[in-house]
Design brief:
GO terms for molecular function: ATP binding; kinase activity; thiamine binding; thiamine diphosphokinase activity. The chain is α/β, with parallel strands linked by helices. The chain has 6 helices and 14 strands. It has 2 domains: 126 residues, Thiamin pyrophosphokinase, catalytic domain (Rossmann fold); 100 residues, 3-Layer(aba) Sandwich (Rossmann fold). The strands form 2 sheets. Strands 2, 3, 4, 5, 7, 8, 9, 10, 11, 12, 13 and 14 form a 12-stranded mixed sheet that branches. The chain is elongated and about 55 Å long.
Length: 231
């Protein structure tokens, strides 16, 4: 598959085949310039009365109706089975921010695979949206202003060190690892700054913080901030 099939100066959404909350889809539409469907996610997009810019995947879950309705030039079949449809889309989309919806549903293996992809493609700045939470790979430096008392969890995808401001339990001097210390259920005490020195750390926030988080990440890109958490 050719890299960067779609390039955009604005946010792009990738819609997966898992559960999609119509309210979340409406919010994503307001934030993203275009929708890309990952295989069966095309059916969610069509059900909302929309046409995806492109459908990417191995096409093992897209419906026959979608195959008939969608123009062939909008169908990008990728036969290889070594990556998920979400990964196939990440490789094909280049944008300052990607919003992933329909990948954090009832199946925990799908959610874990999507979070793994965040760590594997750190150059693709992406927010995954679930029913209760959003999550994204923390860039080298992150500034956010969630409400005081909001839950902010940190989950390492490997060995991680960093420091923080604005959290009830600071992370400076701590060694994080998936089989060791993790940072779930921390609490916001003021404006948050996270600096990741080494490793890949996933930030998890309530889904109510989607719009504010998207704006903060886009502003950081505009200011020249790196999207690669390993930079």
């Amino acid at each position: 598959m050719s890299p960067d099939l779609i390039r955009s100066p604005d946010a792009i959404a990738i819609i997966g085949g898992g559960f999609v909350n119509p309210n979340h889809l409406a919010r994503v539409r307001r934030l993203a310039a275009e929708l890309v469907a990952a295989d069966g996610g095309a059916d969610h997009v069509l059900a909302a009365g929309l046409i995806p810019r492109l459908v990417i995947g191995d096409f093992d879950s897209i419906s026959d109706r979608a195959r008939v309705v969608l123009p062939p030039e909008r169908m990008q079949h990728v036969a290889e089975q070594d990556s998920t449809d979400f990964e196939k889309c990440l490789r094909a989309v280049a944008a300052p921010l990607i919003l992933g919806l329909g990948f954090m549903g009832a199946r925990i293996d799908h959610a874990l695979a999507a979070m793994n992809a965040l760590a594997r493609y750190p150059d693709r700045r992406c927010i995954l949206i679930g029913e209760a939470d959003i999550c994204f790979l923390c860039p080298p430096e992150l500034r956010l202003a969630p409400p005081q008392g909001a839950r902010l969890s940190l989950f390492p995808m490997g060995p991680v060190r960093g420091e923080s401001e604005g959290l009830r339990w600071p992370i400076a001097g701590l060694d994080f690892a998936p089989g060791g210390r993790i940072g779930t259920s921390n609490e916001v005490t003021g404006p948050v700054t996270l600096r990741i020195e080494t490793g890949a750390m996933v930030v998890i926030l309530p889904e109510t913080e989607l719009e504010a988080t998207a704006a903060a990440l886009m502003a950081q890109v505009a200011a020249g901030g790196s999207g690669d958490a390993r930079a």
